[in-house]
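Explain my protein.
***
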Amino acid sequence: MTHGSGTPEADATADAGADAAAEAIRALAARWLSRLGDGDFVVSPVGLWLALGVVASGARGRTGEELRGLVGVEGEAAGQAVTLVGRRVAEADGVAVATGVWSALPILQAFRRGVPGVRFGVLPWAVLFALPDEVFGATDDMTLGELPDLQGELDAWVRRATGGRIPRLPLDLDGSEDLVLLNALALRTSWLSAFPGHLTRDLPFTDGYGDTRPVPTMRKRIPAAWVWYVGRHTVVELPCQDGPRVRFVLGAEGAGPADVLPAAWAGPAARRPLAADSADLTLPRFTLRTTIDAREHLAALGIGSALRPGADFSGISAADLYVARVAQSAVVDVTEQGVEAAAVTQVSMTRGAPAPRHEAVERIAFDRPFGVVVLDGSGELPLFTGWRSSAPLDGSASPG
């Protein structure tokens, strides 16, 4: 993969940096999954990593060291990694990524230059602090006059960035924010071969509590090459017309998402091919939608100083900022035609307190809790990871 930088050496360096970041994202995904429980959820490891990567680019001292332990980079290297990953994600057709920072504080020009793909704006209450002129000059847009409704403005940004899949911010603004960072991912792709609609019918699904009920279930015959095993887990990749790769993972009986979902990005050496000639696949039609408070997860994953007063984000601003809130809203919708997914990660920082031929056919029935993973075109970046434990209802979304 190249990025058009002009020389083979520069391209090789960029690829190596992107590969290292991809490994860090997969590690973050695996660690995060261990905190999410066994109920229904969908999250974006890439979205969380990109948001934390921007924050890490302005972290220094112990704060930077802790963030590097989770996201793999800090300081100037973090800004470069965020740029490389953002480009790799955006290379896939049907995928859009956007990041924005809105601040009431003066933002250092070095920070802005270090994350060139980030859009900067001003929190409307910035004028209340009578800030110096440089805060306004360090933003991409600012109109003085009547203060705008920032909640409405950022909700609209979220809707535009996710194609309407997510209608609003994960967290309401309350005026205590000195800096708000948003990362949005949106994906829409069609199956290379759609599920025949006339084959969809109600089939039994046994949920995580052992209860069985009929759910709308799609069906089609797929080639053996689309199926493989990782340990005791079954992985099915359904090719799309565009770049992303969509994989469904059926774990061993009783296995939870932290054990099952990483099988979706296990490399070829860990895979065992399907022995049959093809597979008869049945898969529920479903929607997952969740909003998750990730701040407590970060604390459990070793991030401490960044989450309390005294954090060192001197690479962002001279003010004593710390991360007060982190949340993510995500949705994935799987139908006969394809997949739509979106995620918004919000980081708030503050200075205050916080009839074919006869052949061997394998039957693969996703009729009990299973995982879904959407990766970029390289198959290396987990854009979305989800777990379906409850019985999908026709046209309904999971609570969250």
Remarks:
- The radius of gyration is 22 Å.
- The domain at 191-287+356-388 is CATH 2.30.39.10 (Alpha-1-antitrypsin; domain 1).
- DSSP finds nine helices and 17 strands in the chain.
